[in-house]
Amino acid sequence: MKCRRILSPVEFLWVLLWLALLCSCRKAPQPEPVVEIKFMHGWGGNGTDHLAMRDIFQGFQESRQDVRLVVDSAPDISVVIDKACDMLVVDRMPDIISTNGRGIYVSNAVKKGTALNLTPHILSDPEFHRNMPAALLSQIKDNQPLYSVPDVMEVQGLWYNRRILEESGLLQPGQPLPADWEDFMALCRQLVEWSRRENRDVLPFALDQQRYLTIFIALLASHGGEGSLRQLSQSYLDSALIQCLEWLRVLKTFSRQESFPLGINDSRQAFLEGQSVFFLNGVWDNMVFAGTDFEADIGYSPYPGLDGVTVSYVSLSEGYVISAQSSPRQQAVALDFLKYLLSQPVQERIVEETLQVPLNPAVKVETIRQSHPLLGMALEEAYRAQVQVPTVYSLWHEAVVAAFNNNVAAFLEGQISAEQLAQLMEDARLQL
Question: Which residues of 323-339 are buried (b: 16+ CB within 10 A; e: fewer)?
Fold first, then answer.
C-alpha cells in the first residue's frame, strides 16, 4: 500500500501561489459598454404637462443603467423640428425624435432614407403589437412601411358654453348642438341677436388662423370623409372646397374681430371669460377647464357638417421617429424606449399627469371618465361623430396648409377671392 506524499508547508504555499496566478490570468467578464442615445423633443417648457413628460422620459433612463439618454429639447416643438430638419440637410438625425404631429420632418426623413421602418419590429414583437390601437395596426396589416408612432391620440371637436346657450333659450337642458351646418349657423345668428337685445358682450366665436383651418377641413370632411380630403390633395381647384371657403366668410361675421388675426390663447381666453360661446380645440384643453367653476358650464360636441354629417378629428398624428443610421444596438434601445412609452403603466401616467388621450387600447375611455369626468365626456362625444378623420397635417402637405394659413386673413378681409385662395393652395402643391 502506497503512502500519499504530504506537501511540505513551502510546497503548499507554492501551489497556492500558482493557483492564484492561474486565476488572475483569467479575464473577468467585462460589462457591456453604455450605449448613448440622442433624443430630441419639444417638452422643454415649464407647464405641468411638459414637466410630467420630462419625468416620464427620465423614468426610462433610470430603469436602464446600460443607457445614457442625451436629450436635446426646447419649449417649442417648432424650434426642435427646424433644428432637426437642418440636420437632415447634411444627412444627420438623432437616434430618436418626438415630432409632436409635425409631418414635415417625417416626410423629409423618409425621403432622405434616414427613418427606420417600424413595421417589422411591431409585427414581430408581441408586446409592441399588443400596445398598438387597431387603427394603426390596420395601416400595416399588409406589411406597409411605418416610420412614425405617436404616444397619444389627437382627438378634437368643439367646446361650447352650455350655460349661455341655455340662458339664451337656444338649447334646452340635455339637448345637443345642431348637427346640420345651416341649423348651426341659424343658432349663431340667433345668439348674436340675443346678445344685442340683452346688451351682452357675447359672440359665437373668437376665431384665430388655426380655428379657421380646423372648421374648414371639418366642413370638407363632412362632404365626403377622409377619402375626399385625400383626393383634393391631387387638385385644390374644386367647387366643394371653394364653397367651404365661402362659409368661412360667414363665420367671420360671428367672430370677435377687434384684433384679427387672433392667436390660440386669445381664442381660449375669450371662451373662458364668456365672451365667445364656442371654442374649436382638442380634448386636451380639459386640462385648462377641469377643476374650475367653469367646468360645470361647458359641453363638448363633434363639428356640425353639411347635410347633418358630424365630424371629429381622431388622429394618429406623426410621433416618434427612429434613425436608420444608428447602430443596431442604438436602434434596439430606441425601440425599447418607444415600447416603454406605449406600455400600459406609462400610458396611464400620461393620462393622469398630462390629460392627453392614450394610444394604448388597454386604457379605456370608461376608466378615464371615472377619474377625469371632463376628459372622458369629451372623448365620448367626439367618438360619436359620424365621420372621424385625421388632422389635415396627416392628409395634405404642409406647404399647402401654409398657403392657406398665410392667405386666409387676406381672403376673410375681402382682399382675395375664394378661387384665388384655392389657386394659391394649388400653386403650392404644384411646386412640391
Answer: bbbbeeebbebbbbbbb
CA 160 to chain CA centroid, nearest Å: 22
d(Cα 115, Cα 105) in Å, to the nearest integer?
10
The C-alpha atoms of residue 324 and residue 215 are separated, in whole angstroms, by 37
CB–CB of 363/344 below 8 Å?
Answer: yes
Tell me the backbone φ, ψ of residue 86, rounded to 5 degrees: -60, -40
Interatomic CA distance for residues 164 and 17, integer angstroms: 92
CA separation for the pair 243, 248 (Å, rounded) = 9
Question: Quick check: 138 pLDDT over 50?
Answer: yes
Instruction: Reduce the DSSP state of residue 94 to 3 states and report it.
Output: coil
Interatomic CA distance for residues 165 and 353, integer angstroms: 32
* Rounded (to 5) percent helix, strand, coil in the chain: 55, 15, 30
Cα separation of 219 and 70, whole Å? 43
Percent of the chain residues past pLDDT 70, beyond the cut? 92
Concatenated DSSP letters for 40-81?
A: EES--SSSHHHHHHHHHHHHHHHH-TTEEEEEEE-SSHHHHH
* pTM for this prediction: 0.80
> What mean pLDDT do residues 311-326 have?
92
Cβ-based neighbour number of residue 303 at 10 Å? 28
pLDDT of residue 101: 80
Name 299's bridge partners. 160
User: What is the tens place of the pLDDT at every residue in 167-196?
Assistant: 999 999 999 999 999 999 999 999 999 999
Spatial neighbors of 365 by CB under 8 A, at least 6 apart, are 376, 379, 380, 383
Total number of residues shown for the chain? 432
Are 418 and 393 in contact by the 8 Å Cβ rule? The answer is no
Question: Is residue 36 within 8 Å of 70, Cβ to Cβ?
Answer: yes
Read off the DSSP letter of residue 346: H
Q: What does pLDDT average to over the chain? A: 90
Look-up of cell digits 399588409 = 142
Position 114, amino acid:
T
302 in Cβ contact with 156 (< 8 Å)? no
Backbone dihedral region for residue 355 (phi beyond 0: left; psi -120 to 50: alpha; all else: beta): left
